Amino acid sequence: MRRALLYILLLTSFLAGACHASSPVVINAPDVDFETSEVWTLVAVRGKEISRGEEASPITIQVNPEAGTFVGSSGCNRYSGNFANLGEGRMRLSDISATRIACPEHVMRDEATYLQLLRRCDHYSLDHYTLVLLQGDKPLLSFEKM
Q1: Per-residue pLDDT tens for 47-91?
Q2: What number of other Cβ atoms are within 10 A of residue 103's Cβ?
Q3: What is the pTM of this model?
Q4: What is the DSSP string of 33-101?
């Protein structure tokens, strides 16, 4: 009984300390890496679930680490850029460019917000079903596998 209580106390202390860590907490399943064929659909922005209107296409991202690139749909336009995996959940997205098709104003507003947040991402968390892009330890964009 004492051993169980000691174990619970140590585990609680460890978890409380992890919650206050200044570096990002990146949880990557050890056997999971980006698959070039996987397309991820945006489901949350800054931790809040999103709801897309019927006239808006889903916002997606597809990462190709071997080629060092990523592509996707930002809701109206297609975008692409360079991807560098820096290890330990760190990454760099650069040279982001997008097509310039006009869409309804609210779709364009969502698209502009998405692309601004995408440019700020410098970490990621990846498991079998979810991809979270972070700025430091703050989740900005959360995706689910299509």
Answers
A1: 999 987 676 789 999 999 989 999 999 999 999 999 999 999 999
A2: 17
A3: 0.76
A4: ---TT--EEEEEETTEE----TTSPPBEEEEETTTTEEEEEBSSSEEEEEEEEEETTEEEEEEEEE---
**Domains of the chain by range and CATH?**
25-145 (2.40.128.270)
Tokens of 45: 């922005």
Calculate the CA dihedral of residues 112, 131, 138, 140 and round it to 10 degrees.
10
pLDDT in tens, 126-146: 988 999 999 999 999 999 998
- Cα–Cα distances (Å) from 68 to 11, 71, 108, 137, in that order, read 39, 11, 27, 23
Closest alpha carbon to 96 in 131, 122, 69, 126: 69
Please report, for residues 87, 89, 134, the alpha-carbon distance to residue 22 in angstroms, rounded to integers and kept in the order given. 18, 15, 14
